């Protein structure tokens, strides 16, 4: 069963925190911030936690606390050697803090052996240690590991709370990770790519697809993600066949499995044209 972050901090203050957590939903940066806030609270030495002024708080805030560990994917996955390396550290005494915190960022990228090694850690938890798995998509974590964790779900920020590029946030459908990727690649570039794609479908003119290329692989992946958001809105308004969402999911998966992004977009467009394309007005 999942709980929310407010209940979690209450449990932390009462000393009733589970030792193995799974943070999912919202964006990567939002979840990391929540883990760091929790670490502050657990290690602060003052009455009013977190005070942000005691030596433990200061070290946590500067990112230099020796009892805070973070594991991220190296290239595309988190390997077993990374888990073994952290294991050695976790069974030692804490350096300075009361609690050792280990954040596994993008836990949906754990390889199977790495996930199994973590499972052992969850079954024989080291003292005074909190392990937090963080993932945008909890479905990507094997069930045996996921079922061990207390789940904490984070909803996406409201548009009014979003302080970065608002247009990118809107185009992302409220997904912080996608919004930041759009900003990285460039909002105008992504808008023009999705505009060109939709125009090709609307005019039933496959040749217009060529206007999309050349395109970097990263841009192709991003375009598919953005099209999924845009087309979903059109499906809701009855302007698109729901079938197109299934096709786009399949093509996104294919590109993830190293299928060429140009081929994937062209296949998508052909299927999309067959479905009747857009039907605006
Ligand atoms: Zn403090």
Task: Give a topology summary.
Layout: E1 2-3, H1 5-13, E2 20-25, H2 28-43, H3 55-62, E3 68-71, H4 80-90, E4 100-105, H5 112-123, E5 129-135, H6 143-146, E6 150-154, H7 166-171, H8 176-185, H9 187-202, H10 217-236, H11 243-256, H12 261-274
Bound molecules: zinc ion.
The site of zinc ion has 9 residues, from helix 3.
GO molecular function, one term: DNA-directed DNA polymerase activity
Organism: Dehalobacter restrictus (strain DSM 9455 / PER-K23)
InterPro entries: DNA_Rep/Repair_Clamp_Loader (IPR050238), P-loop_NTPase (IPR027417)
Describe the model.
There is one protein chain. The protein has 281 residues and is of the alpha/beta class. It has two domains: 2-155, 3-Layer(aba) Sandwich (Rossmann fold); 167-274, no CATH class. It has twelve helices and six strands. The protein has helices spanning 5-13, 28-43, 55-62, 80-90, 112-123, 143-146, 166-171, 176-185, 187-202, 217-236, 243-256, 261-274, and strands at residues 2-3, 20-25, 68-71, 100-105, 129-135, 150-154. It has a six-stranded parallel beta sheet with strand order 1-6-2-5-4-3, with helices on both faces. α5 links the parallel β4 (100-105) and β5 (129-135). The longest helix has 20 residues, at 217-236. This is DNA-directed DNA polymerase. GO terms for molecular function: DNA-directed DNA polymerase activity.
């Amino acid at each position: 069963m999942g709980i929310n972050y407010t209940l979690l901090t209450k449990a932390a203050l009462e000393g009733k925190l589970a030792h193995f957590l799974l943070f999912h939903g919202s964006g990567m940066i939002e979840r990391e911030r929540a883990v760091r806030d929790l670490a502050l609270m657990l290690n602060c030495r003052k009455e009013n936690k977190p005070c942000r002024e005691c030596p433990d708080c200061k070290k946590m805030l500067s990112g230099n606390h020796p009892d805070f560990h973070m594991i991220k994917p190296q290239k595309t996955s988190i390997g077993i050697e990374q888990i073994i390396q952290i294991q050695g550290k976790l069974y030692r005494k804490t350096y300075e803090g009361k609690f050792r915190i280990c954040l596994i960022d993008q836990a949906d990228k754990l390889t199977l052996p790495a996930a199994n090694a973590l499972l052992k850690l969850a079954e024989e938890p080291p003292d005074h240690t909190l392990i937090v798995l963080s993932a945008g998509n909890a479905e990507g974590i094997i069930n045996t590991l996921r079922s061990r964790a207390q789940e904490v779900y984070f909803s996406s920020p409201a548009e009014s709370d979003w302080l970065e590029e608002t247009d990118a946030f809107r185009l992302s459908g409220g997904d912080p990770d996608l919004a930041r990727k759009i900003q990285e690649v460039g909002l105008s570039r992504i808008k023009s790519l999705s505009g060109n794609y939709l125009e090709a479908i609307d005019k039933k003119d496959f040749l217009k697809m060529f206007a999309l290329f050349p395109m970097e692989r990263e841009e192709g992946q991003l375009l598919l993600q953005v099209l999924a958001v845009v087309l979903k809105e059109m499906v809701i308004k009855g302007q698109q066949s729901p079938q197109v969402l299934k096709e786009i999911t399949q093509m996104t998966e294919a590109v993830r499995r190293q299928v060429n992004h140009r081929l994937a977009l062209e296949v998508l467009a052909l299927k999309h044209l067959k479905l009747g394309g857009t039907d605006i007005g």
